[in-house]
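Lab notebook, bench 4. Still working through the backlog of constructs that have no structural model yet. Next entry is a single chain of 178 residues. Request: give me the C-alpha cells for it.
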Amino acid sequence: MTNEQPAVDASGGIQLDDRSNTMGVVGLIFGILGLLTCGLLSTFGLIFSIIGLSKSRNGTAIAGLVMSILGFLMIIPLLIGLLLPALSKARQVAQQSSAVVSASNTIATWKSEHDGTLPSDQEANENLLPGIEKMHGSIHYAKLGDDRYSLSFPGIDGQHGTPDDQVWISDKGVLSKE
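Model written out:
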C-alpha cells in the first residue's frame, strides 16, 4: 500500500485526482440501470459514458457505453411486442373496410340489374358474397328493408350473430358502422 497524500492547492483545499473518471462511473451506473429498465435509462448512460470517454479512456466509461448500447437493443423487442398487435388490428380494419366496399359495390350492381330491389339474404349470401369472402374473410348479408341491409363480420369468437360482431348498415346507399 502506498501512503500518498492528496495534493493541497494554494487555498488549502484538497485537489482530487480525476483518475476515477466520475462521469464514466455515472455512465456505467445508468448503463446497468438501463439494462434493468429495458433501455429506459440507457440514454443517460450513453451520454455520461461518452463524456467519461472524452475525459479519459478507462474501463468504467467503456463498460457504461457497452451497457447503454445493450439497453437500447433491449428496447427493440419491447417496441415490436407493443406495435405488432396494433399493426394487426389496423390490417384487420383495412381488410374489413375493403370487404365492405366490395360487397356494397356488388350489391349495388345487383340492385341496378334487378329493377332497384335488393337481393334476398339467400341470394346475397350464397351467390354474391362467396367471391368476396374468399379474398376478405367471412361476411354475412341481411336485408333489413326495401333500401336497407347489413353486412356483418364475426368478432373475436369467430361466430356470426353474436354481440361482438362488426356490423355495417347501408341505408339508401349510405354505409355506416353500427
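Notes after review: The radius of gyration is 33 Å. The beta strands are 7-8, 14-15, 140-145, 148-153, 166-171, 174-177. Flag for follow-up if needed.
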